[in-house]
Amino acid sequence: MIEKNENTKVTVVDSMMGSGKTSWAINYINQHEDENILYITPYNTETERIRDSVHREVKLPAHKGDGKLGDILKLLENEEDISATHTLFSMLTDEHKEAIDRGSYTLFIDETVEAVAPYELANSDDIQFLLDKGSIEIDSDGVIHWIDQDYDTRLNPIKILAKNHALFQVNKKILIYQYPPDIFKLFTKVYVLTYMFGSSTMKYYFDLAKIEYDLKSVKRVNDEYRLVDYYEASRENIKEKIHIYNNPDLNEIFPQKITSFSSTWYKNPDNRSKITKLQRATYNYFHNRCKAKTGETMWTTFKTFKSKLKGKGYTNSFVPLNCRATNDYAQSKFLVYPVNVYPNVGVSQFFSQRGLKIDDNNYALSELVQWIFRSAIRNGEDIHIYLPSKRMRGLLENWLET
Fold first, then answer.
1. From CA 389, how far away is CA 259, in angstroms rounded?
2. 96 and 186 in contact (C-beta within 8 Å)?
3. For the chain, which ranges sit under pLDDT 50?
4. Which residues contact 235 (CB under 8 A, 6 or more apart)?
5. Which residues have a Cβ under 8 Å from the Cβ of 259 and sit 6 or more positions away?
6. pTM value > 0.70
7. Which long-range contacts link 314-319 to residues 24+ away (Cβ below 8 Å)?
8. CA–CA separation, 19 vs 28, rounded Å?
9. pLDDT tens for residues 232-245?
10. CA 67 to CA 77: how far, in whole Å?
11. 105 with 188: CB under 8 angstroms?
């Protein structure tokens, strides 16, 4: 039985990218050698950066024996300091949770995790198969319960999630995975390092799970990064450095609606010729409008349409839409963001059925700003960006003006 620390202190450190959140965290880790640390970040390269930046031994889970999941269990049981990825954190089992509870760990989460996210089945008929067999039940709230004690097959991933009460069905067709909220109560302290937390699905998740938190910011005081009361940083310094392309030659390559360039728009076969025009506009922007050199570009789209928009001279500078917590693209000065972002339909419905409505515009703006700050703007350099979506362009312009 896992004992939960009901007095866990959760602190959300909400400050603009480049303000010193990671530097503050590294200083904290160096100054609190008596605390066991679990540092969670999106990418393996960032786990290495944390390991190499602190003045104590931090272990990275390795592929050996029972894989990274087995290795992190051993590290937790030995009360080692650990840096691992968001993905591995989402896979922790009851054994891991018991080890965390015994080890009195302090948790750092670099950028918000997808605490509520779509769950893709290996086979679309798996849930119906399990229902017909009597292995699962689905209650009125959509929670999937595993009731078959002996069934052990390729469907074990569903079994594990269902036993953790982490798998839900929305509108009898969409599957949603939710982090088991009890994990956050197992840590002595929790720090979430992010920006625009109020627009993230993790904020709605905390509200739903009734996880209380303090909202703080980071400020540099006498050459030291410190936590201070939350404040909204001025955008004056970046306003003059973000140059939005506003000429109609590329912004009006075809008539558009408010939802144009969304994932649904991309998937519509009727828009294939428009996607071709968009690819040409992207090429035109990089090569003719910006005359960008190799290594200076950065672009994105929905993953399945990457091949439709790639082009000579910029294909390899693709940066995923959900890219977070990395400095790998800080040399990029010329950006193309040819998408129109909305929250996942299933995730929105999951929250709305529980009385919480995601603000579509704030969510979209947060995703866009996070992506932009992978570029040279994080180093205080000027950047130039092409946003063909009227909606996304307007959201960014309004944000910079307020």
1. 8
2. no
3. 1-3
4. 399, 400, 402
5. 265, 340, 342, 391
6. yes
7. 314/282, 314/283, 314/286, 319/371, 319/374
8. 16
9. 988 988 999 999 99
10. 16
11. yes
